[in-house]
Amino acid sequence: MKERLNQFSSAPPQTRMLVYADGSTTLLLDALVGERLSVRIDHQQQVPAAHVRRIGCQILGAAPDALVVDRQTRILTPDDEVISVNRVVIAGRESDRLVPPPDELLGPYLKKVGLALKREPIAVSRDTWPIGGSSPACVSKEYIIDCGSAGRVYVHERFNPRFVPLEPRHTLEPLERDG
Hints:
With about 180 residues, this protein is α+β, with helices and mostly antiparallel strands. It has five helices and six strands; from the N terminus they run αααβαββαβββ. It has a six-stranded antiparallel beta sheet with strand order 1-2-3-6-5-4, covered by helices on one side.
C-alpha cells in the first residue's frame, strides 16, 4: 500500500490528506468544502453476492447466494456539485441495518447507530472521473468498513478532480513593475 501512496507525494495537501487518511472521508470532505455535504442515490438494490463476485464474494467473503446491497451514490456540495462518486456493497447478517436512510451519508450514519467501525484500506489509485465528457484523471480510494457482527461494507470512492486535484494548481502571480 505504501508504494501506491507514493504516487501522490507531489499532490496538493488536501489530496494527500484524503489518500493517507484511514478515518471518515465524509468529515474530511466536509472540512474541504466548509459546509455540510449531502447524498444522492443513483442506484440501490439487493442482489446475490455472485452478481458482484469480486466485491461480494472475494472481498467481503459472502456466499455466492447471499444477498448483498449494491449501492451507487454521489456526494454533493450545498450547490449540488458532485464531489465524489461512490460504489458501496454491503454484506452481512445485519446488512439491512447498515444501509442508511436515503438522505444520510454512510459513514456518519454508521457512527450514529453506534457500531464499532474499523476501516481496512484496499487501494488508492489514479482513476477516471466518470462525470462529464472529458473524463479527466482523478483520485480513487477503496476500503472496507468492518462493522463487527453486523457485517462488512466495501467502499470505492472517486473524487472530483476540481476539489481533490492530482497535481498542484499553478497560478501566475502578477509581475511587479519597477517605477
